[in-house]
Amino acid sequence: MSTKEMIKIHNFSAGPGVLPAEVLKQAAEACINFDNMNLSLLEISHRSKNFEKVMEEARALVKELLGLNDNYKVLFLGSGASLQFAMAPLNLLRTEGTAGYINTGVWASKAIKEAKLIGNTQVIASSEDKKFNYIPKGYEIPSTLDYLHITSNNTIYGTQIKEFPKTSVPLVCDMSSDIFSRKVNGNDFALIYAGAQKNMGPAGTTMVAVDETKLGKTGRKLLSMLDYQVHIKGDSMYNTPPVFPIYVSMLTLKWLKDNGGIPWIEKINQQKADTLYNEIDRNSIFVGTTAKEDRSNMNVTFIMHKPELEPEFDKLWKEANLSGLRGHRDVGGYRASLYNALPLESVNALVEVMQAFEKKMA
Ligand SMILES: *Cc1c(COP(=O)(O)O)cnc(C)c1O
Fold it and tell me: Does any ligand 1 atom lie closer than 6 A to the CB of residue 79?
């Protein structure tokens, strides 16, 4: 029996984040008896037909859910999104070219740091002046850039790009914490990458979707493992891929598709975010930390007018079986992550605790 069914924990973890209970159950079963082989998924060859089918399906589901044309290739690579901070410039920034970056937080800053080690890098806009509590808008994008790197959702600060820049410059997007949460046109981006552990699966794999026609033009020789073209040629199995994270990601994407895909989850995600932000704005105890028009539907950040009341509030939500609500150490306060697998019911449970706390303090 799944522990998830026995104890109902409302899991607001920012990452690794909540996964659908039925996916966890299937994943657990596959560790014992995968695909009726009487073997564990963890002890068979990644070249077996049974696993090749998993890899093919995972890649196809990404393509379908992002609506990608045939010039896009999907990879599931080892390591985290942080490796893509380097792989993106290595594969797309010409040795004589310049890459543009929008700095919207900790992850964007780390991406900039790596790019600077690789080539000319220009920060086009930044929200650092206000502790990253908004998304910069209205900036000029030089048409000469090799690409513009953006972070669609800022997991730590709780901001989200609602409208992507319109430009002829190829867009590179770190979608780690909001991929598959809302409708985007994947074809608007030259490269999308996302670590699995926020909204797609367990830690250990990173999804890369890249426009193949943009590759091989940098004039730079690459180490094989850092070369998208090598991984594409190997059908995402140049080396042994992280089989288990890929399998669980595939199951999660299948869960998403079978339930109605992006239109289905986008509606629920909007309901969840609206429910919680409405309460934050109504409740006299709490206050949101970000510009309203840039509020993330995935990571909802809020603080208390009187931070000294935090220990008492913490006791209350823990008693109500809520988990993972403490804010990132850089922001403090609270962060409720509302990833795809978190049901509206969990948001309602949080709102009830917030209301009970307000009454108690009255
Ligand atoms: C978590 C996160 C990362 C880092 O992912 P790792 O897999 O730990 O390297 C990068 N970007 C964003 C937006 C994230 O939320």
Answer: no
Separation between Cα atoms, residue 42 and residue 302, nearest integer Å: 41
Domain with CATH 3.40.640.10 in the chain: 24-258
Ligand 1 proximity of 198 Cβ (cutoff 6 Å): yes
Side chain identity, residue 92: L
Using alpha carbons, select from 275, 81, 97 the residue that is nearest to residue 178.
81
CATH fit for domain 24-258, picks 3.40.50.1000, 3.40.50.1860, 3.40.640.10, 3.40.50.1240: 3.40.640.10
Looking at domain 260-361, its CATH architecture is: Alpha-Beta Complex (3.90)
When pLDDT is cut at 50, 70 and 90, the band that residue 330 belongs to is confident
- CA 153 to chain CA centroid, Å, is 8
In the reported structure, the alpha carbon of residue 82 is separated from the centroid of ligand 1 by a whole-number distance in angstroms of 6
Catalytic hit among 73, 146, 178, 198: 198
Task: Please confirm, yes or no, whether 131 is among the known catalytic residues.
Answer: no
Annotated catalytic, 146?
A: no
Q: Is 174 annotated as catalytic?
A: yes
Question: In the chain, pLDDT over 70 holds for what percent of residues?
Answer: 98
